[in-house]
Amino acid sequence: MGKRKKVSGLSGSDSAIALMSMRALLDKMRREKELLAQSGTAQASEGEQAEDEEVAEEFDHELFSHMEKIIDMMSNRIINSRDILFSSIDILELKNNIAGIVAQSMVLGEDSLWSASVLHQHLELLERIVPQTNIAVARLWINAFFYRVAAMLPAERPMVLSVEQPVPAVTLIWDGPVTVPGTIDWVVMTASPRTAEMLLDYPALDKDVQALFVTKAKSLNRGLALLSHVPQALAEMCMCARTAGKKVIRGALTNGHTWIFLIVKFGDKGISYSRTEPITMINVNAEIQKVTVSEYAVALISSILAHWTMHSHEDLRDDDHFVVKQWS
Fold this sequence. Notes:
alpha+beta; 14 strands; 43% helix; 8 helices; globular; 24% strand; nine-stranded mixed β-sheet; three-stranded mixed β-sheet
């Protein structure tokens, strides 16, 4: 007797694409129903029209209800799989009083090796002596920020910096499925001194560890072009969230000069994320063709990194640097 042919269902990424199509179809049907209701049907008599509308309403309600149940089932399948599909997106903007927050953070660790002024001078030095001809050099700029963050954190919550942390691979559904390999460039961890000491030997993502996940862009894209790398960063963050068993994680995407900060939240109805606009530390004077490092921007990025490391598994707080942008 021959082997029975195995019948497989949709793959994870195919299911996510089908889910997006189902949601779009349901939204379209609801919009068309609203338009029909507004236009009315003048051809039928009042009695016939009322009867037809009642039958149609009952049918639509039942159809929409079945479609919503199917969407819920598909959403649960995707949430529990290794595929990622985001249900909502928020944009974060800096608070009006951000200058005061940054000023307070600049005094943190000012007596240490990596004070705010030392970091600024170090980054200026890199601009003068390092040719920026490939993406590998970005690590020099990025690492310097981490050294500053280590000086800013309180002694009771020391930092451990894990490089190329291994995590399970996932598939992100963006414009299409994107599979991401199982590593993340940096994990900035903070814990009690005893736990931090153990992390140096075994940097595992544990429930008692706060961890900020940082991704280096895969090209030298600057400014707004860095946004094209957001899917990669989000996928890596989701890998880490599942490994650590966290419902909320914070992270960042950077090329060394420009940073985008991200929050991913796993909820009952799906996965959502928030992101900032790109924040760059470089000032460009086109008239004299001179590039300078903004001391304020460097302090701002450092301040955000330090705060987000301490609160990496929390949603936005009252003392955060950002608020959710309200669209008028």
